[in-house]
């Protein structure tokens, strides 16, 4: 697969709260069939792709929350997708809510897996930049309780040598943080795959709707350019349980250009030809890290979390 291959993004339209896993998996399989028919070798699906985006609701009953989680992967409902991938010889990225027991402790993560062309799980990523709140905010039209329902991912930002390239994963809000891309860039990543669920409006107000798309494309285009990597970002879109989710799934080249972008807010396939060798231009010129990075001046990046402006100066000397 090294060299040129066709990459697909399988955007999903809305998933209702009452939709079964089986019905969603059918939609994923339909997209996978279309991707394969077009000649694609890898398809990227959204974040939390098996259910509605449940962190929008405050649910005090943990059993109700747990109904949105998978305790095994693959499981009976998702196995047909794995079987189809192996049969067609197509890899995939899939986001889902993961409930697991580690060291006798139940843990819950917002997770993505990478499955290779033989249907084997070759990579797992657990979302690190969890947005939102741990407690509901009554004044908001909908909640964003990822900090309540998930732990911060504990796997870092690994990359995997698989399917002929160096592949990495991230999830939704991660794309807004340059550190996400740079940590993978420092491992030579050539394709970052990322699923997202982004409401088309800011629930806190104060942001024109068109800026949401600007911020999405700005983030993935700069991440691609500054690290010489392809980025494939795939949405769950449309009016989902009263909340309009932004579409705009896109594949970005290592030069930072958008190569393909979804036009609808429904199930939609986007495709772009990938030449992993094209990553080398940026990686060996303006973003030749070994040559140009100045880590002796970057200590604050890992030693300070929040911004701390310097103390106020003399007001008379301010301009
Ligand atoms: N699922 C997400 O991580 N959504 C956030 C929203 C809350 C801003 C995002 O960054 O798109």
The tally of structural domains comes to: 1
Give me the side-by-side strand order of the main sheet. Answer: 5-4-3-2-1-14
Reading the helices and strands in chain order gives EHEHHEEEHEEHEHEEEEEEHHH
Instruction: State the CATH superfamily name.
Output: Carbon-nitrogen hydrolase
Bound molecules: 3-methyl-2-ureido-butyric acid
Backbone structural class: alpha/beta
So how many helices? 9
Mean pLDDT: 96
Radius of gyration: 20 Å
Percent range for β-strand residues? 25-35%
Helix content bin = 10-25%
Name the CATH architecture: 4-Layer Sandwich
The CATH topology comes to Nitrilase/N-carbamoyl-D-aminoacid amidohydrolase
Give the low-pLDDT segments: none
Overall outline: globular
Distance between the termini: 58 Å
Defining key terms:
14 strands, binds 3-methyl-2-ureido-butyric acid, 9 helices, alpha/beta, 319 residues, Nitrilase/N-carbamoyl-D-aminoacid amidohydrolase, six-stranded mixed β-sheet
């Amino acid at each position: 697969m090294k060299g040129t291959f066709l990459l697909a993004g399988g955007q999903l339209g809305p998933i209702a709260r009452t939709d079964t896993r089986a019905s969603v998996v059918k939609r994923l399989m339909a997209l996978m069939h279309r991707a394969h028919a077009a000649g694609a070798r890898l398809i990227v699906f959204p974040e939390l792709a098996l259910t509605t985006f449940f962190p929008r609701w405050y649910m005090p009953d943990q059993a109700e929350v747990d109904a949105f989680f998978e305790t095994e992967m693959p499981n009976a409902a998702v196995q047909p997708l794995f079987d189809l991938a192996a049969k067609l010889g197509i890899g995939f990225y899939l986001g889902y809510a993961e409930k697991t027991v580690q060291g006798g402790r139940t843990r819950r993560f917002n997770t993505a897996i990478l499955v290779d062309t033989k249907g084997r799980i070759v990579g797992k990523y657990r979302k690190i930049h969890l947005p939102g709140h741990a407690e509901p905010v009554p004044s908001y039209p909908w909640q964003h309780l990822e900090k309540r329902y998930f732990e911060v991912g504990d796997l870092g930002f690994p990359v995997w040598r698989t399917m002929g390239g160096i592949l990495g994963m991230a999830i939704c809000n991660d794309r807004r943080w340059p550190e996400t891309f740079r940590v993978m860039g420092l491992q030579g990543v050539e394709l970052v795959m990322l699923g997202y669920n982004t409401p088309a409006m800011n629930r806190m107000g104060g942001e024109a709707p068109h800026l949401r798309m600007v911020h999405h494309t700005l983030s993935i285009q700069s991440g691609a350019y500054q690290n010489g990597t392809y980025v494939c970002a795939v949405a769950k879109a449309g009016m989902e349980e009263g909340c309009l989710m932004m579409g705009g799934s896109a594949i970005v080249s290592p030069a930072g250009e958008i190569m393909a972008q979804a036009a609808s807010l429904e199930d939609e396939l986007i495709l772009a030809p990938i030449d992993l060798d094209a990553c080398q231009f940026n990686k060996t010129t303006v973003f030749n890290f070994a040559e140009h990075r100045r880590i002796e001046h970057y200590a604050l990046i890992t030693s300070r979390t929040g911004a701390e402006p310097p103390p106020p100066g003399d007001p008379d000397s301010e301009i």
